[in-house]
Amino acid sequence: MFHRNIKLIIAGLIIATGIWQFTEGNIGNGIFLILLSAIPIFLYFKNEFILLAFLKLRKQDFEGAKKWLAYIKNPETALVRKQQGYFNYLHGIMLSQTNINQAEKYFKKAIELGLSMDMDLAVAKLNLAGVAMTRRRKLEATSLLNEAKKLDKQNMLKDQITMMKDQMKKI
Asked: Largest alpha-carbon pair distance within the chain?
């Protein structure tokens, strides 16, 4: 909604107003404003449209997620590096259902830009391994599967990884 620098300016103004309330003797208002300043600071690091797109994807609403991601006009300037990674990651997940070639580009760019959570990185590498496997690039697929297995610390992708390894043995 707002550019990332505007979010910091808003947070700074709210903090300054909170300090002013402290000096006026309105301690409750000052505390409330200091706590309220946490919202724009949080939204500086976590883009609100990406969060809403994640919520839509949880409900398998791909059209709703595309709608929220469409609100981000210039991801290179409006988003921090990790947010750009998640922007590409979400596009890759949505396109992996229909267009594998474009999904591969988005997943590679997401890995290049970086993802915060190991689980998201493991899912991206697992999808890239699937793309490599469909293109008969067995060495690349095995290395990506091994990396995904290392990143999957909670064993949530264990079944998918073993299934893909079994399919690779047939190739």
From this structure: 75
